[in-house]
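Tokens in:
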């Protein structure tokens, strides 16, 4: 399962190369590839991150032992098979973390300087991040990614009440019912109808 993200990017690359072959283009169009890969990672971020966190999600049994929720035969004892899953899962979790860090770096550091230089190629490459939001509110895309990280981490909390509280808080902030929250302050969406 941890190879799913690289396989998805490889599939996008193969589709892109076959499209270039069918259209007769002789140049690799990196902006189209990065846009497609970035959009796919944004869409499936919660699914991928939750899948990679599976070795860390243990369930307790009445006999006092715990097993990995998705793999009922693997005991959460940090030895043998669980240790291997733990190490692979830990390294695999670096992929979505790296994606989050890259998106944050793009929006916070690179985007302002590239906008000042009118770098249209850069804007085309990272349009999957900023297209939904009005100019000046691009940080909202990073906030949505951080929300998705919290949603993915929610099942790892030990008690059901903590999971429900965390999810309620996430949904409350995402719903933005409070007039003092992000929506009222910044109106981040490009269309006003989506801010309501």
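Residues out:
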């Amino acid at each position: 399962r941890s190879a799913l993200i690289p396989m998805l990017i490889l599939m996008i690359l193969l589709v892109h190369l076959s499209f270039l072959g069918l259209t007769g283009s002789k140049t690799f169009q990196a902006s189209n590839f990065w846009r497609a890969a970035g959009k796919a990672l944004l869409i499936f971020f919660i699914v991928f991150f939750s899948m990679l966190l599976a070795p860390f999600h243990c369930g307790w049994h009445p006999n006092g032992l715990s097993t990995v929720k998705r793999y009922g035969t693997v005991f959460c004892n940090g030895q043998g098979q669980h240790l291997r899953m733990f190490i692979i899962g830990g390294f695999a979790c670096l992929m979505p973390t790296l994606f989050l860090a890259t998106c944050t770096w793009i929006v916070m550091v690179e985007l302002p300087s590239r906008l000042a230089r009118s770098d249209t190629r850069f804007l085309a490459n990272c349009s999957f991040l900023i297209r939904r939001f009005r100019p000046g509110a691009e940080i909202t895309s990073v906030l949505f990614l951080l929300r998705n990280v919290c949603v993915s981490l929610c099942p790892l909390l030990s008690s059901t009440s903590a999971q429900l509280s965390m999810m309620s808080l996430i949904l409350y902030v995402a719903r933005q019912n409070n007039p003092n929250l992000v929506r009222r302050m910044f109106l981040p969406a490009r269309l006003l109808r989506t801010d309501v």
